[in-house]
Amino acid sequence: PVLPQGWTAEKDFKPLGKISKPIQRSIEPVGPHFLAHARRKRHHRTFSEDERI
Amino acid sequence: MSAEEDNGVTVTPPERLAIGIAFGNSNSSIAHTGSDGKPVVIANEEGDRQIPSVLSYIEGEEFHGNQAKTQLIRNSKNTVAYFRDYIGKSFDSIDPSASHASAHPQKHDKTVAFSIHDTSSESPNTVTVQEIASRHLKRLISSASDFLGQSVNAVVITVPTNFSEDQKKELEAAARDAKVELLQFIPEPIAAALAYDARPETEVRDKIIVVADLGGTRSDVTVLASRGGMYSILATSHDYEFAGQNLDQVLIDHFAKEFIKKNKSDPRENPRGLAKLKHESEATKKALSLGTNATISIESLSEGIDFSSTVNRIRYETLANKVFGGITRLIEDTVKKAELDLLDVDEVILSGGTSHTPKIASNIATIFSQTTRVLAPSTLATAINPSELTARGAAIQASLVQEFDVDDIVQSAHPMVTVAPHLHNAIGVLLLSGDASRGIFRPVLDPETPVPAKRTVTFATPREGGDVLIKICEGIRDIKVTKPEPKPKTNGATVKDADEDDSDMSDSDEEEEEEDLRERAWKVGTELAEVAIKGVKKGGKVEITLNVNAELGLQVVAREVGSKTGVRGVVEKPEH
């Protein structure tokens, strides 16, 4: 949508709410994408750190 | 996959050759992934890719697979079949009915055993189900080793989702006895999904998948969320009444009635007649999956009388209608159990031997929307053979973890790694309207996505460009019910009040559901953030990246495509 007149926010970003309560579930330890996830989690890496390697 | 970053210490495991094994109650199969990365299902010495999970003994000689299966007629007491589900269970907890026509399971200490003449000696031996499983695995592995020309020393085995830890432990021991390293157990439905998703032409896409694994003695239905190529199980069902053997029974009864009409004796009343009829009815059933007509012919079925007959597919489908209906209901119930609507399902994977039945696939296709892909040979030309799916999936996983330390595999499968918060609602962007209660919601991250997760999407901006406001909100799954538009040219048919259509956001018209058009929709939930991007070019596009971290903090990056600068912001993690 078009920016309404008079809308202002610090650095053009206005946080309003929070993400609602998640559900705890188990990811199946199968497939290449899981193995990448497990590698990130075990080495406490973020996505971008992982991409750099 | 890189396994070389083990704190700099490179432990070289002895050279492994791993295969995938789909271990079923009725049939098993073995598969290997070659250097080209494509999984191949291996045939045994008899040329079978679907190897019956049957062992039989004649004067101390062991028969396996189809050779053993034919012994169910002449040598049923020394033939062991349908034993997979007895593994790791106490005698009191098993349903032995499938083994009625073969060696009967017996109570033996805390486990199940069979009393069979497996040596040439006069007296029978008591052989535990674990030992039987081990012998079966040995035969499968030796078939694979012969085919590959190298000895196989590691396996990934598929198991049902309700296989208990005790069952896994005992099967692991059976694998150890068969002299192979068990790398991992993987659930059958996940193996089936992986077999499709690992094909090079498949794009990683967020989708809800239903896997219907229709086997010989049981049918298992699983609802999965596939997010970023990772699978989370949302609901499972197991059924022992609507499976392949129930379809065999339909044909057995049909042919038996025909035989009685002509000969006044029931072939089902003597065990050998029944065994012959069962064996041939199963073959007839398979023929009816391929052709529209099938014949059956049995020498000396009962009282020395031969029997031969034909049946066409339509007749069979009529007779089997009840079983087909049971399978469809099982799928509907499982989707409901996952708290989803049939419209939420993107893909249905039909797996298992019974999935070859064309009518089952077409029945299933009718309960879903037209956009749902039903992956079965009769509904999709590029479908993978449903009998091969789980073995292929296991082979793919085997090739992925083959180089890993077993400790690494175990640690990766640990709940510390696998349990993650999954988004309850979708997170996305509100388009078109400035009013949060209206407008169109476009999901960027779907519900059930495990975090951390990151997605990037591109949106068109208002045509004139200028300053643009982006609203990030949560979206709640909803079903939009629309009354069908009255056709303008029908003669005299009541034209419904057009104003009624405006109430379509409320789902109050339950009683007219059949006529109503139901479609997936999103209700706008909590607004999370607003972002302004100023001075967008005419016809410009905006790229938005949403990154949810493990604590559910949300990082937003928005920029016009082509520009270097963008707006960044963070929505703090919630307190709960």
TrEMBL record, chain B:
<protein>
    <submittedName>
        <fullName>Uncharacterized protein</fullName>
    </submittedName>
</protein>
<dbReference type="GO" id="GO:0005829">
    <property type="term" value="C:cytosol"/>
</dbReference>
<keyword id="KW-0067">ATP-binding</keyword>
<dbReference type="InterPro" id="IPR029047">
    <property type="entry name" value="HSP70_peptide-bd_sf"/>
</dbReference>
<feature type="compositionally biased region" description="Acidic residues">
    <location>
        <begin position="498"/>
        <end position="516"/>
    </location>
</feature>
<dbReference type="Pfam" id="PF00012">
    <property type="entry name" value="HSP70"/>
</dbReference>
<dbReference type="InterPro" id="IPR043129">
    <property type="entry name" value="ATPase_NBD"/>
</dbReference>
<dbReference type="InterPro" id="IPR013126">
    <property type="entry name" value="Hsp_70_fam"/>
</dbReference>
<keyword id="KW-0547">Nucleotide-binding</keyword>
<feature type="region of interest" description="Disordered">
    <location>
        <begin position="482"/>
        <end position="521"/>
    </location>
</feature>
<dbReference type="GO" id="GO:0140662">
    <property type="term" value="F:ATP-dependent protein folding chaperone"/>
</dbReference>
<dbReference type="GO" id="GO:0005634">
    <property type="term" value="C:nucleus"/>
</dbReference>
<dbReference type="GO" id="GO:0005524">
    <property type="term" value="F:ATP binding"/>
</dbReference>
